[in-house]
User: Which sequence fits this backbone?
Protein backbone atom coordinates (compact mmCIF):
# COMPACT_ATOMS: atom_id res chain seq x y z
CA UNK A 1 0.00 0.00 0.00
CA UNK A 2 1.26 3.47 -0.86
CA UNK A 3 2.28 5.79 1.94
CA UNK A 4 0.67 9.16 2.62
CA UNK A 5 3.69 10.91 1.14
CA UNK A 6 3.54 8.85 -2.08
CA UNK A 7 -0.20 9.48 -2.45
CA UNK A 8 0.27 13.20 -1.92
CA UNK A 9 3.00 13.30 -4.57
CA UNK A 10 0.77 11.38 -7.03
CA UNK A 11 -2.12 13.79 -6.40
CA UNK A 12 0.14 16.79 -7.03
CA UNK A 13 1.49 15.15 -10.20
CA UNK A 14 -2.02 14.48 -11.57
CA UNK A 15 -3.11 18.04 -10.71
CA UNK A 16 -0.11 19.36 -12.65
CA UNK A 17 -0.98 17.12 -15.64
CA UNK A 18 -4.59 18.28 -15.49
CA UNK A 19 -3.47 21.90 -15.73
CA UNK A 20 -1.50 21.06 -18.88
CA UNK A 21 -4.33 19.13 -20.56
CA UNK A 22 -6.85 21.86 -19.68
CA UNK A 23 -4.57 24.53 -21.15
CA UNK A 24 -4.00 22.46 -24.32
CA UNK A 25 -7.76 22.05 -24.68
CA UNK A 26 -8.29 25.83 -24.56
CA UNK A 27 -5.44 26.47 -27.02
CA UNK A 28 -6.86 23.89 -29.46
CA UNK A 29 -10.32 25.45 -29.14
CA UNK A 30 -8.92 28.87 -30.08
CA UNK A 31 -6.97 27.43 -33.03
CA UNK A 32 -10.01 25.46 -34.16
CA UNK A 33 -12.17 28.58 -34.26
CA UNK A 34 -9.61 30.37 -36.42
CA UNK A 35 -9.19 27.39 -38.78
CA UNK A 36 -12.98 27.02 -39.13
CA UNK A 37 -13.25 30.61 -40.31
CA UNK A 38 -10.64 29.97 -43.00
CA UNK A 39 -12.45 26.82 -44.17
CA UNK A 40 -15.78 28.61 -44.43
CA UNK A 41 -14.12 31.14 -46.72
CA UNK A 42 -12.26 28.55 -48.83
CA UNK A 43 -14.97 25.92 -49.35
CA UNK A 44 -17.39 27.81 -51.67
CA UNK A 45 -14.63 28.95 -54.04
CA UNK A 46 -12.99 25.53 -53.96
CA UNK A 47 -16.26 23.68 -54.68
CA UNK A 48 -17.28 25.98 -57.54
CA UNK A 49 -13.90 25.94 -59.27
CA UNK A 50 -13.66 22.16 -58.95
CA UNK A 51 -17.17 21.72 -60.37
CA UNK A 52 -16.35 24.02 -63.28
CA UNK A 53 -13.20 22.11 -64.25
CA UNK A 54 -14.87 18.73 -63.91
CA UNK A 55 -17.58 20.06 -66.22
CA UNK A 56 -14.87 20.94 -68.73
CA UNK A 57 -13.37 17.47 -68.42
CA UNK A 58 -16.76 15.91 -69.18
CA UNK A 59 -17.05 17.89 -72.47
CA UNK A 60 -14.32 15.96 -74.31
CA UNK A 61 -11.75 18.64 -73.54
CA UNK A 62 -9.17 16.25 -72.12
CA UNK A 63 -6.97 16.54 -75.19
CA UNK A 64 -6.52 20.26 -74.54
CA UNK A 65 -4.33 19.88 -71.46
CA UNK A 66 -1.95 17.19 -70.14
CA UNK A 67 -3.34 17.46 -66.59
CA UNK A 68 -6.69 16.24 -67.91
CA UNK A 69 -5.28 13.18 -69.66
CA UNK A 70 -6.67 10.01 -68.17
CA UNK A 71 -5.58 6.42 -68.63
CA UNK A 72 -7.34 3.20 -67.76
CA UNK A 73 -7.18 2.35 -64.05
CA UNK A 74 -5.64 -1.05 -64.80
CA UNK A 75 -2.92 0.63 -66.85
CA UNK A 76 -2.12 3.15 -64.12
CA UNK A 77 1.03 1.70 -62.58
CA UNK A 78 2.72 4.79 -61.13
CA UNK A 79 0.91 6.59 -58.33
CA UNK A 80 1.76 9.56 -56.16
CA UNK A 81 0.05 9.26 -52.76
CA UNK A 82 -0.05 12.39 -50.59
CA UNK A 83 -0.50 11.47 -46.92
CA UNK A 84 -1.56 14.38 -44.70
CA UNK A 85 -1.02 13.89 -40.97
CA UNK A 86 -0.25 16.25 -38.09
CA UNK A 87 3.15 17.45 -36.96
CA UNK A 88 2.36 16.60 -33.33
CA UNK A 89 0.61 13.92 -31.33
CA UNK A 90 -1.75 14.11 -28.34
CA UNK A 91 -4.76 14.15 -30.66
CA UNK A 92 -6.24 10.70 -30.13
CA UNK A 93 -6.34 8.37 -33.14
CA UNK A 94 -6.12 11.26 -35.62
CA UNK A 95 -2.72 10.32 -37.08
CA UNK A 96 -3.08 6.53 -36.91
CA UNK A 97 -6.41 6.60 -38.76
CA UNK A 98 -4.74 8.37 -41.69
CA UNK A 99 -1.73 6.05 -41.61
CA UNK A 100 -3.97 2.96 -41.54
CA UNK A 101 -5.93 4.25 -44.55
CA UNK A 102 -2.69 4.83 -46.46
CA UNK A 103 -1.43 1.36 -45.53
CA UNK A 104 -4.71 -0.18 -46.70
CA UNK A 105 -4.26 1.46 -50.10
CA UNK A 106 -0.62 0.32 -50.29
CA UNK A 107 -1.64 -3.24 -49.42
CA UNK A 108 -4.51 -3.33 -51.93
CA UNK A 109 -2.34 -1.98 -54.77
CA UNK A 110 0.88 -3.93 -54.40
CA UNK A 111 1.04 -4.25 -58.19
CA UNK A 112 1.54 -0.47 -58.50
CA UNK A 113 4.63 1.64 -57.91
CA UNK A 114 3.54 4.10 -55.24
CA UNK A 115 5.57 7.10 -54.13
CA UNK A 116 4.66 8.66 -50.80
CA UNK A 117 4.52 12.41 -50.35
CA UNK A 118 4.28 13.02 -46.60
CA UNK A 119 2.71 16.22 -45.29
CA UNK A 120 3.11 16.33 -41.52
CA UNK A 121 5.86 14.98 -39.30
CA UNK A 122 3.94 12.05 -37.81
CA UNK A 123 3.31 10.35 -41.15
CA UNK A 124 6.85 11.08 -42.33
CA UNK A 125 8.40 9.56 -39.18
CA UNK A 126 6.17 6.49 -39.37
CA UNK A 127 6.86 5.58 -43.00
CA UNK A 128 10.55 6.46 -42.68
CA UNK A 129 10.87 3.88 -39.89
CA UNK A 130 9.35 1.31 -42.25
CA UNK A 131 11.94 2.24 -44.93
CA UNK A 132 9.16 3.18 -47.37
CA UNK A 133 10.07 5.27 -50.42
CA UNK A 134 9.23 8.89 -49.60
CA UNK A 135 9.42 11.14 -52.65
CA UNK A 136 9.05 14.37 -50.66
CA UNK A 137 8.16 15.53 -47.17
CA UNK A 138 6.67 18.72 -45.77
CA UNK A 139 6.99 18.90 -41.98
CA UNK A 140 6.50 21.55 -39.31
CA UNK A 141 4.11 23.56 -41.48
CA UNK A 142 0.88 23.41 -39.47
CA UNK A 143 2.08 25.80 -36.77
CA UNK A 144 1.88 28.59 -39.33
CA UNK A 145 0.00 27.54 -42.45
CA UNK A 146 0.92 29.47 -45.59
CA UNK A 147 -0.64 29.23 -49.04
CA UNK A 148 2.86 28.77 -50.51
CA UNK A 149 2.98 25.26 -49.03
CA UNK A 150 0.06 24.11 -51.18
CA UNK A 151 1.70 25.72 -54.23
CA UNK A 152 4.94 23.80 -53.62
CA UNK A 153 3.04 20.51 -53.38
CA UNK A 154 1.01 21.37 -56.49
CA UNK A 155 4.12 22.11 -58.54
CA UNK A 156 5.73 18.84 -57.47
CA UNK A 157 2.79 16.59 -58.40
CA UNK A 158 1.96 18.41 -61.65
CA UNK A 159 5.56 18.10 -62.86
CA UNK A 160 5.53 14.39 -62.06
CA UNK A 161 2.15 13.92 -63.75
CA UNK A 162 2.98 15.87 -66.91
CA UNK A 163 6.27 13.97 -67.29
CA UNK A 164 4.23 10.72 -66.93
CA UNK A 165 6.19 9.64 -63.87
CA UNK A 166 2.78 9.50 -62.18
CA UNK A 167 -0.34 8.16 -63.84
CA UNK A 168 -2.47 9.22 -60.87
CA UNK A 169 -2.11 11.50 -57.88
CA UNK A 170 -4.18 10.72 -54.79
CA UNK A 171 -4.44 12.41 -51.42
CA UNK A 172 -5.57 10.96 -48.07
CA UNK A 173 -6.53 13.27 -45.22
CA UNK A 174 -8.95 13.95 -42.37
CA UNK A 175 -11.93 16.02 -43.48
CA UNK A 176 -13.30 18.26 -40.76
CA UNK A 177 -16.96 17.78 -39.85
CA UNK A 178 -17.15 18.93 -36.26
CA UNK A 179 -15.01 19.13 -33.15
CA UNK A 180 -15.75 15.47 -32.40
CA UNK A 181 -16.12 14.09 -35.92
CA UNK A 182 -13.64 13.75 -38.77
CA UNK A 183 -13.96 11.72 -41.97
CA UNK A 184 -11.06 9.91 -43.61
CA UNK A 185 -11.02 10.91 -47.30
CA UNK A 186 -9.05 9.28 -50.12
CA UNK A 187 -9.42 11.62 -53.09
CA UNK A 188 -8.04 11.68 -56.63
CA UNK A 189 -6.35 14.97 -57.51
CA UNK A 190 -5.00 14.09 -60.94
CA UNK A 191 -6.28 13.58 -63.51
CA UNK A 192 -9.34 15.71 -62.81
CA UNK A 193 -12.43 13.51 -62.76
CA UNK A 194 -15.46 14.10 -64.93
CA UNK A 195 -18.84 15.02 -63.51
CA UNK A 196 -21.05 12.06 -62.67
CA UNK A 197 -23.74 11.39 -65.23
CA UNK A 198 -26.52 11.77 -62.67
CA UNK A 199 -25.26 15.16 -61.53
CA UNK A 200 -26.66 18.23 -63.25
CA UNK A 201 -24.14 20.14 -65.29
CA UNK A 202 -25.40 23.69 -64.99
CA UNK A 203 -22.64 25.24 -67.05
CA UNK A 204 -23.40 26.27 -70.62
CA UNK A 205 -21.13 25.97 -73.66
CA UNK A 206 -17.97 28.09 -73.56
CA UNK A 207 -16.29 30.65 -75.75
CA UNK A 208 -12.58 30.75 -74.90
CA UNK A 209 -10.49 33.90 -74.92
CA UNK A 210 -7.53 33.66 -74.95
CA UNK A 211 -6.95 30.10 -76.19
CA UNK A 212 -8.53 27.14 -74.37
CA UNK A 213 -5.08 25.69 -73.67
CA UNK A 214 -3.87 28.87 -71.99
CA UNK A 215 -7.02 29.30 -69.92
CA UNK A 216 -7.13 25.66 -68.87
CA UNK A 217 -3.49 25.69 -67.80
CA UNK A 218 -4.10 28.65 -65.50
CA UNK A 219 -7.43 27.37 -64.15
CA UNK A 220 -6.28 23.80 -63.52
CA UNK A 221 -3.18 24.86 -61.61
CA UNK A 222 -5.24 27.35 -59.63
CA UNK A 223 -7.79 24.63 -58.87
CA UNK A 224 -5.07 22.25 -57.63
CA UNK A 225 -3.63 25.05 -55.51
CA UNK A 226 -7.02 25.65 -53.91
CA UNK A 227 -7.84 21.94 -53.48
CA UNK A 228 -4.54 21.24 -51.68
CA UNK A 229 -4.89 24.42 -49.60
CA UNK A 230 -8.37 23.32 -48.60
CA UNK A 231 -7.05 19.88 -47.62
CA UNK A 232 -4.43 21.51 -45.38
CA UNK A 233 -7.11 23.66 -43.75
CA UNK A 234 -9.44 20.67 -43.30
CA UNK A 235 -6.64 18.62 -41.77
CA UNK A 236 -5.58 21.45 -39.48
CA UNK A 237 -9.14 21.94 -38.22
CA UNK A 238 -9.67 18.21 -37.79
CA UNK A 239 -6.41 17.96 -35.85
CA UNK A 240 -7.38 20.76 -33.46
CA UNK A 241 -10.84 19.25 -33.01
CA UNK A 242 -9.34 15.82 -32.29
CA UNK A 243 -6.80 17.31 -29.87
CA UNK A 244 -9.47 19.34 -28.10
CA UNK A 245 -11.59 16.19 -27.65
CA UNK A 246 -8.58 14.16 -26.49
CA UNK A 247 -7.50 16.81 -23.99
CA UNK A 248 -11.08 17.16 -22.74
CA UNK A 249 -11.20 13.41 -22.09
CA UNK A 250 -7.76 13.53 -20.46
CA UNK A 251 -8.87 16.38 -18.18
CA UNK A 252 -12.00 14.44 -17.15
CA UNK A 253 -9.87 11.36 -16.44
CA UNK A 254 -7.49 13.47 -14.36
CA UNK A 255 -10.44 14.82 -12.34
CA UNK A 256 -11.61 11.26 -11.64
CA UNK A 257 -8.10 10.16 -10.72
CA UNK A 258 -7.63 13.13 -8.36
CA UNK A 259 -10.97 12.32 -6.72
CA UNK A 260 -10.05 8.63 -6.25
CA UNK A 261 -6.53 9.38 -4.98
CA UNK A 262 -7.82 12.03 -2.58
CA UNK A 263 -10.38 9.59 -1.21
CA UNK A 264 -7.68 6.95 -0.79
CA UNK A 265 -5.42 9.51 0.88
CA UNK A 266 -8.10 10.47 3.43
CA UNK A 267 -8.95 6.81 4.16
CA UNK A 268 -5.29 6.01 4.74
CA UNK A 269 -4.82 9.13 6.88
CA UNK A 270 -7.92 8.32 8.93
CA UNK A 271 -6.74 4.76 9.38
CA UNK A 272 -3.32 5.97 10.50
CA UNK A 273 -4.84 8.45 12.99
CA UNK A 274 -7.14 5.74 14.38
CA UNK A 275 -4.19 3.41 14.80
CA UNK A 276 -2.22 6.11 16.65
CA UNK A 277 -5.16 6.84 18.96
CA UNK A 278 -5.51 3.14 19.77
CA UNK A 279 -1.78 2.91 20.49
CA UNK A 280 -1.94 5.95 22.81
CA UNK A 281 -4.96 4.55 24.65
CA UNK A 282 -3.35 1.14 25.00
CA UNK A 283 -0.16 2.73 26.35
CA UNK A 284 -2.14 4.79 28.88
CA UNK A 285 -3.99 1.71 30.11
CA UNK A 286 -0.69 -0.12 30.51
CA UNK A 287 0.63 2.62 32.80
CA UNK A 288 -2.34 2.37 35.20
Assistant:
Amino acid sequence: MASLKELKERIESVISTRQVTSAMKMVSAAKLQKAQQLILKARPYSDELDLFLRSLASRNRRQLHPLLHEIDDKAAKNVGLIVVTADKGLCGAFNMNIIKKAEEYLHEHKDKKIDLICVGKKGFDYFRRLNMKIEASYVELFNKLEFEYSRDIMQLVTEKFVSRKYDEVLIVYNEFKSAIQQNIVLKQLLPIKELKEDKEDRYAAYLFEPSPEELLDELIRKDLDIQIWRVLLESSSAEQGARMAAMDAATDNADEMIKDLTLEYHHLRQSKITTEIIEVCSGAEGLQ
